[in-house]
Amino acid sequence: MERIEKRRDGERGVDVGVVGATGAVGEVLIRLLLERGFPLRELRLLASERSVGRRMRVGDRELEVHRAEPDAFDGLDVVFFAATGGLSKELAPAVVRAGAVAIDKSSTFRMEPGVPLVVPEVNGQALREHDGIIACPNCTTIGLVMALAPLEAHARLERVVATTLQSVSGAGRPGLEELHRQLEDDAAPPGVFAAPIARNVVPLCDRAMPDGWSSEEHKLVDETRKILDRPDLALHATCLRVPVEVGHSASVIAESADAISPADARAVWSAFPGVEVVDDWNAGVFPTPRAVEGRDAVLVGRARSDAATGGLAFFEASDNLRKGAATNAIQIAETLIARG
Ligand SMILES: NC(=O)c1ccc[n+]([C@@H]2O[C@H](COP(=O)([O-])OP(=O)(O)OC[C@H]3O[C@@H](n4cnc5c(N)ncnc54)[C@H](OP(=O)(O)O)[C@@H]3O)[C@@H](O)[C@H]2O)c1
């Protein structure tokens, strides 16, 4: 069932709420709503008790932050959730009851049957059926599926091995603050991350699971399969946290029955919206997190044949706060609006 509808005949514009407005994703999301010319009418900023009364500059206006609570959604059309999973679970049903659509950045609803998990360029058609809650994939998943989808359409994938290098802002403001603290004081103890992150690489993102995987690695596998509609896809992931402020990247090997040549890969990536090929090895041109920070495109490069498996090896990078989070969420809302 389509849930976005103009509830006041003849009026234009969309009334929007942002839960987690003061966070790393929330602030980027608010900035991008303005930058992209989103047809905003009302913008309601919501966060925790800590931020109530704080005023945030939004374009040429100053808006006050209110408490995110069940009766905060009256009159809204779309509510973006960029806070905690627990809060999404508690408040997204209240958004639906208020007649609005909840677009959730947390992992809470991603794998629920009936909840679309959407990267608009890849599976925007999944937005046709929903019950008021739409899930945004994990920030690492989005970059990976944007790079894999054109390859999957070209030559059905059989096996994918991905090693991700994830920036500290993937863990929000507390992640950024922990890196900065440790860069100033090498002895500052880890709290957000499982080991010191300054001058280090930590092979654990999110929680350690009893099966030897991390919860982040499970998310990457499960979400990629759901978005590509390939529950059978063999996919192995290793997720690493690196001392980069913004930008997630991944080294990937993708195998298919008919080998994908680097030239074919570059051609199908170039034709895919939102993907940009940055690949001139001899000229020292390749994707990096730093090059993609502040951009919406997913950069792909270093395409080469893997002699060991016959697969295609490549490297991709995306801005985890933009395409990995805010941009993707806004694109979902824009797609719903475009459908009227
Ligand atoms: N960072 C990324 O790259 C990324 C990418 C994809 C998805 N996500 C997801 O997006 C969400 C937000 O992440 P973030 O990185 O922006 O985190 P963050 O910087 O830590 O911000 C968290 C936000 O949630 C609010 N919040 C926390 N507890 C709350 C409560 N009990 N009631 C109301 N508001 C509460 C905070 O408000 P106060 O300021 O008032 O505390 C803040 O606005 C998370 O679900 C995360 O998994 C993040």
Q: Based on helices, strands and strand pairing, what is the structural class?
A: alpha/beta
Bound molecules: NADP nicotinamide-adenine-dinucleotide phosphate
Order of helices and strands, N to C?
Answer: EHEEEEHEHEHEHHEEHEHEEH
- How far is it from the N-terminal to the C-terminal residue, by CA? 13 Å
Q: Which regions are unreliable across 5 or more consecutive residues at pLDDT < 50?
A: 1-10
How much β-strand is present in the residues?
15-25%
Helix percent reads 25-40%
Comma- or semicolon-separated keywords:
alpha/beta; 340 residues; globular; disordered N terminus; binds NADP nicotinamide-adenine-dinucleotide phosphate; 30% helix
Would you mind describing this structure in some detail?
30% of the residues lie in helices and 24% in strands. It has 340 residues and is of the alpha/beta class. The strands form two sheets. Strands 3-4-2-1-5-6-7 form a seven-stranded mixed β-sheet, sandwiched between helices. A hairpin with a 2-residue loop joins strand 3 (55-58) and strand 4. Helix 1 packs across helix 9 (322-338) and helix 4 packs across helix 9 (322-338). It is globular and about 60 Å long. The two termini are 13 Å apart. It binds NADP nicotinamide-adenine-dinucleotide phosphate. NADP nicotinamide-adenine-dinucleotide phosphate is lined by residues 20-26, 47-48, 50-51, 68, 82-85, 87, 105-106, 139, 169-170, 172-174, 320-321, 324-325.
